[in-house]
Write a structure and sequence with these properties.
Layout lengths: L3 E8 L3 E3 L12 H10 L6 H4 L12 E7 H5 L14 E5 L10 E4 L3 H10 L4 E6 L1 H6 L6 E7 L7 E2 L10 E8 L5 E7 L1
Parallel strand pairs: 1-6, 1-7, 3-4, 3-6, 4-5
Antiparallel strand pairs: 2-8, 7-10, 9-10
Length: 189
């Protein structure tokens, strides 16, 4: 059965973006960059794959991406209407229409969507953001991979932005990099 993996960068104080959705303060360099390019090439937007020489890199972990409206809209000013064309793309939003035929808009019941996707054949499902969607899908998240960056921003979009909901996970891997970033993997208990 496929798994839903929340693979995301975060600050030491638990934010995945600044108050206005800023995320350009997360470094993409050194060992972290090399690890992502080698192990998670499908998590780079399609337009970034050629400059990094991974145009033909196979999807290693995910063949589907799920994101909230704000996460999706971050690429629209650059004309990215299909940011992950190499993946099946779903955007959860009750307010927007599909701006691209390669992107499917899900107006309600993201948990139902995930449960249905888990029953299909394929690689795992990548939840790439945002915090409200992650909170709504907490009970469906099987794996957390958090790239914890050694910075504090004080406010912004939290890793999980929702009501109190206790969920247990078990540490399964932790890697530290030369930039001070740590990549920690947890599996649901």
């Amino acid at each position: 059965m496929r798994k839903l993996t929340y693979y995301v960068a975060a600050t030491l104080d638990g934010y995945i973006a600044g108050p206005e959705g800023q995320f350009d303060f997360f470094p993409f360099e050194g060992e972290v960059r090399d690890t992502i390019l080698a192990e998670y090439p499908e998590t780079l937007p399609t337009v970034a794959r050629e400059p990094f020489g991974i145009t033909e890199a196979p999807n290693r972990h995910f063949d589907t991406v799920l994101m909230g409206r704000s996460t999706y809209e971050a690429g629209l000013p650059q004309g990215l209407t299909s940011p992950y064309a190499h993946l099946k793309q779903y955007v959860v939003s009750s307010t927007m229409a599909a701006p691209d035929p390669e992107v499917e808009i899900v107006a309600d019941d993201p948990a139902g969507l995930v449960r249905g996707l888990k029953k299909q054949d394929g690689l795992d499902i990548w939840l790439c953001g945002g915090g409200k969607l992650a909170a709504a899908l907490l009970d469906e998240i099987d794996v957390l991979i958090i790239k914890r960056n050694p910075i504090v921003i004080g406010s912004g979009i939290p890793l999980f932005d929702g009501p109190f909901n206790l969920a247990g996970f078990t540490l399964s891997a932790n890697r530290s990099f030369d930039t001070g970033v740590s990549m920690t993997t947890f599996h649901r208990k």
